Amino acid sequence: MAQHQWEIERKYDLPPEQAGKIKPHKIKGFRVGEPAIYDMTAVYYDTEDLALGAANVAVRRRAGGGDDGWHVKYKAGKARGELHYEPLKSSNRIPAALRKTLVGITLDEHLSPVATIKTHRTEYPIRAEDGRQHAVLCVDFVTARDERAEADREWSECETELSSDTLSKKESKAVFAAVEDVLFKAGAVQSSSPAKIARALGQDEVPAKPKRAEDSGEDAPATGQDVLNAMCETLTRQLQHWDFAVRIDAEDSVHQMRVRSRALRSVLHAARNFIPEHVGTDLEDRLKTLARALSDARDEEVAAEQLHERLDGEFQGQITASARQDLFGASETGIAHAARAVRRMLESPAHLQLLKDLRALSRDSSFGEQAAHMSAKKFAKAVMSTALTDVIHKATAEPTVDSQTGRAEVSELGAELSERLASADEDSVGLAIYFDHLHDARKAIKSVRYVSDALDRADVEPGKKRSRAASYAKDYQNELGSLTDCAVMEHWLARVARSFQRTGKDRYAVGLLHGLEMASLRARLDDAPELISDLVADIRRELPSAE
Known about the structure:
Blueprint lengths: L1 E5 L2 E5 L17 E2 L3 E11 L4 H4 L2 E7 L5 E8 L2 E7 L10 H11 L5 E16 L5 E14 L4 E12 L6 H17 L3 E2 L5 H5 L12 H4 L7 H24 L5 H18 L6 H35 L9 H26 L2 H15 L12 H20 L16 H10 L6 H30 L6 H40 L4 H35 L5
Antiparallel strand pairs: 1-7, 2-10, 2-11, 3-8, 4-5, 4-8, 5-6, 6-7, 8-9, 9-10
């Protein structure tokens, strides 16, 4: 069984001969307990191509400390943490639950030892005057074996780790400052290595800040094929990383994974003229299915965020405690239900196969070869022009009509919203068509943003005019985003109202919120045509031939 532990720590480098100069008893404002001494051995595992390390995840089997067993150390967004798994009878066998958690990154490939690290640790508990433990100061002497390079490395370091994630920001700053005062006087400096495993593998040289390829001496993409491969590889690795984050329920992980799935789909669609149609269409369809599954969970999160804003903002004091409890309960139930659906999707063979197929693209020398004859910049211009032209087509498109019935096709969400929003003398089908039209236009606008960001990460600029047009799309996408969030909230409230009616709960609060949400949504729908018209004009001004 896995236990989750949030990790907030700071690391310091200290020459071995300076370790004796550390005076823990001089840490001001805190009581330092008697030290505990441990001799620990940790064996680190990874795939053949070090996929875990590339995703900021480390897997180790530790023995000899106070937390023997299997550990997964990770960084997900701004959060760092550890998962602990109880030792198995066969200590060399990786727990099945651990493998399952990592499968989005490892793609079920074999994990083998990459480093063995032995640590002699002296651990000092740091307590407040009232006896509460705030942190632990660790002084480590380390010997490491790089199993693949057959190289040995030695060093010493210090680490201050908070003992609780409930400490206030002020308390956390105070304990770090007090410990650092003692460490710096002993000659310690902020660590230059992100983790022991990085130093063990000789990967501890970290640049002060990210650099573009031309500044760092790295090879910039030379051809359009290089650019396409770089964009797809980066987004695939990010998708795999956030797959892991969703599996451990990390904050904002569903949103980030959905963004990466949509970004990949946008890049493939914008580059469709350079990809075999059967390959691009198949991957786009499967990425769309993934995004749809994540969208349900993300919509529940958005509704929860807006519900808290409204009940703690303009409606504070107007909603009874009982009604608040019912509304928040409905939100928690919806989130839990959507999370279970996401977990089922992540555990499906189809999802694992999608990740494997996406990773295979970056290893396929023929992928994107239609762009191999183009320069990187010319290719960037081409895909950005395609993405921008798609916005114009979506924004000016006529409704799709079913060839058999002769009726315009509308989405389920559009049909539901229009039934509730349409006035007595208004055509609800026309309103549904209008909503779907705006929704499709906004998705095309977001695709421009995703393609622009992917090109930027590949260090390629699609020309000044196209970059300027893309910046317009980003601005308008933010404007239209409030309309989508409003539609999500209106749909959620309508569903909760039906649920409360069935269960006999008080519907007054839901009705109050729903009525105002409908009015807000209608106002945004009325304002949207002008926004779309202005955006199309701005894009056409930069790309006069993109009609």
